[in-house]
Amino acid sequence: GKRSFGPSFDRDKLDNLTLGLGRHAARNLYRVPAAIARLARSRRITERLSNSYDAVLMPTLAEPTLEIGWLDPTADYQQIIDRLLGWVAFTPLQNATGDPAISLPLAQTKTGLPVGMMLSATRGREALLLELAYELEEARPWPRIQDPAPAAPRKRARKAVK
Q1: Which one of 25, 69, 102, 115 has the largest count of C-beta atoms within 10 Å of its C-beta?
Q2: 29-72: per-residue pLDDT in tens?
């Protein structure tokens, strides 16, 4: 940290997720070459998939919008990482391959929170994803999150005059 951020870097201010990821990386450094090879293979898999399909539709996240505190950075590292990996089950493939994806609010929970669905395609097909998004919104506009109506102006209390 001090090499990257200078002498003011304070490791004690890092959250448990960052510290845990650092420990995990240090313990598993020998696995990096094999992990890079697996990531390269995943790119070939998505290229083959694109021979049969223009785009793939999947949930953006495995769970609807989480409650505040679910990913509490002060919680135990293992709890945070387990929850995080379960929640973002679908997006890491695009992170690994560099393939484009777009998340669209195509559904809602019972309480009105947006539920994202993700369209992905192979590299260079960003325009296709934007065209599909435009067509979906035109056919069935997604709900807008509106600001609440402004509160009525408060009446000033009159000062009592003696």
Answers
A1: 102
A2: 999 899 889 888 888 888 888 889 999 999 999 988 888 888 88
> How far apart, in whole angstroms, are the C-alpha atoms of residue 82 and residue 14?
19
Instruction: Pull the structure tokens for residue 109.
Output: 């929970």
* CA 158 to each of CA 9, 153, 155, 161: distance values in angstroms, whole numbers, following the listed order: 55, 15, 9, 9
Q: What is the pLDDT of residues 69-128, one digit of tens each?
A: 888 888 999 999 999 988 998 898 888 889 999 999 988 888 888 889 999 999 899 999
Residue 60 DSSP one-character state? S
Return d(Cα 122, Cα 93) in angstroms, integer.
11
Tell me which residue of 95, 74, 92 sits closest to 17, measured CA to CA: 74
The phi, psi pair for 106, rounded to 5°, reads -90, -5
Q: Which two tokens stand for residue 84?
A: 């995080």
Would you give the DSSP letter of residue 12?
A: G
Q: Which two tokens stand for residue 44?
A: 């070939």
